[in-house]
Design a protein that fits this description.
Length: 476
């Protein structure tokens, strides 16, 4: 048995050990299972948001992009870090004080039932797509680094079994504690690999000397148009406030813990992208024969060129990044369906004990559906950015509600969300549907923000039914 496989197996056993250790705590009720009893401190908040952010796109995807365009690919993670910081400064504490569980629940509280339903459906779709991409990346990582053991499909099945199993057993408690291990492993593995890989080619001077078009590739602002980098920041800040990070904020022990945890998480997220970009540049020097369309092999090839301990640790780190993201997102999708659809419309009087069991069934079902999606998915980074852009309408509504409630009307949530979804569909519809609009906006997220703000303001003029005053719960 290879050292790399032993390290991965030990990591899997540790994750399941943590999950079973916290199972009794998670079984106490739905709040414990879904939101960790609202007892997550600053450290657990920080590692949870870091684990959520540092997934397939933030590691293998960044190295793949760096192989083609250079260090500027690392700004993807910097954008995620900015999203975490903005969430901490402006939204995390407010979500915690409102004591809601999901954004759709927040919408119904201040708007109407239609707003809750359409936002729940939209978010479930977004999170399901992102979860499926984690299975895809998990399969790619295991099959690339352990080809004698895992096929691509086998790697996806193994990834799905671990992701779904950990989430089913311990909920947000197991995800949170497992993320401590995962984040430590990610940092140790990737830093070690960077040092070893750069050393193996003679240091940074040799790296720069042997890169084609070195001046551009080594430049953090070269290779990617600034409008694309800015769009990453807009997308990540937008989604951070109303997508996967929401259950983490709602599970905080206090407003202060929520705020500080997201700020610390931003600091932890920032460096990983540029470290992975360095590995992509090393691959460009070591394996220049890799065709651009197969640049996803860049990071795996560099990792497997290292000594067995380094490659095994980095393999586990890459897979850890995938695990940490998938578990949090899968739990978020399950929470949305169970809280905003099942409990709200199917069985409002369900007991808390039974609701925990229902949550597990729902998460298992969503896990199977997202696995099917993974077998039919293409284009990880593009699909990720597209899916996250759909959160624009929700973030727009949230900010208006909290900071400009006088402009909010009962139907604002429904119409703004609907227009946001239609905008995404039109943008990616085959043919020249939007004509001269696309060249003006260039990236879908800019288009989404404009149409959502315009819709919200139009509704504030047409609809005369104001929402009730926004209230927040006092700190316990």
């Amino acid at each position: 048995m290879s050292i790399q496989l032993v390290i991965v197996c030990l990591y899997i056993l540790l994750l399941f050990g943590i999950s079973f250790w916290v199972k009794r705590r998670a079984d106490k009720g739905s709040t414990e299972y879904l939101l960790a009893g609202r007892k997550l401190g600053t450290l657990l908040i920080a590692v949870n948001i870091t684990g959520l952010a540092v997934g397939a796109a933030s590691t293998v995807g960044v190295a793949e992009r760096a192989f083609s365009i250079g260090m500027a690919a690392g700004w993807y993670n910097a954008a995620w870090a900015a999203g975490s910081v903005v969430m901490g400064l402006f939204a995390a504490g407010k979500l915690r004080k409102m004591k809601v569980s999901t954004i759709p629940e927040f919408f119904e509280k201040y708007y109407d039932t239609k707003g809750r339903v359409i936002s729940a459906v939209g978010l479930i779709i977004i999170l399901s797509v992102i979860t499926s991409l984690q299975y895809l990346a998990g399969g790619a990582i295991l099959s690339s680094l352990l080809p004698n053991i895992f096929s691509f499909q086998g790697g996806m099945l193994m990834s799905a079994a671990v992701f779904i199993g950990i989430t089913l057993i311990g909920g947000l408690w197991s995800s949170g504690l497992a993320n401590i291990v995962s984040v430590v492993l990610i940092y140790l593995g990737i830093i070690y690999s960077c040092v070893e890989a750069v050393g193996n080619i003679g240091g940074f001077a040799a790296l720069e000397a042997n890169l084609p078009n070195a001046e551009t590739m080594i430049n953090p602002l070269g290779g990617i148009p600034i409008v694309v980098i800015v769009s990453w920041f807009v997308v990540m800040i937008t989604q951070a406030i109303t997508s996967g990070p929401v259950p983490i904020a709602c599970g905080a022990s206090s407003e202060k813990s929520a705020r500080n945890g997201f700020l610390l998480g931003g600091l932890l997220i920032f460096p990983i992208g540029f470290l992975c970009a360095i590995l992509g540049l090393v691959a460009k020097v070591m394996f220049p024969e890799i065709p651009v369309e197969k640049a996803a092999l860049a990071m795996p090839k560099v990792v497997m060129s290292l000594n067995p301990i380094a490659s095994g640790a980095t393999l586990a780190a890459l897979w850890a990044a995938d695990v940490s993201t998938a578990c949090t997102i899968l739990l978020g999708a399950g929470t949305l369906f169970s809280q905003d659809i099942y409990k709200r419309f199917v069985d409002p009087q369900i007991s808390d004990e039974k609701f925990v069991k229902v949550n597990r069934v729902i998460i298992f079902a969503i896990g199977l559906v997202t696995l099917w999606l993974a077998f039919n998915a293409v284009g990880i980074l593009k699909t990720m950015i597209t899916g996250l852009s759909m959160t624009t309408a929700l973030t727009c509504i949230f900010f208006f509600t909290v900071y400009a409630p006088g402009l909010c009307r009962r139907s604002s949530a429904f119409w703004t969300t609907l227009v946001g979804i239609v905008g995404i569909v039109l943008w990616f519809m085959p043919g020249n549907v939007l004509g001269c609009i696309k060249p003006i906006f260039k990236e879908v997220v800019y288009f989404e923000w404009v149409i959502c703000i315009i819709t919200f303001l139009l509704v504030s003029v047409i609809d005369k039914n104001k929402i009730k005053e926004v209230e927040v719960a006092s700190e316990e």
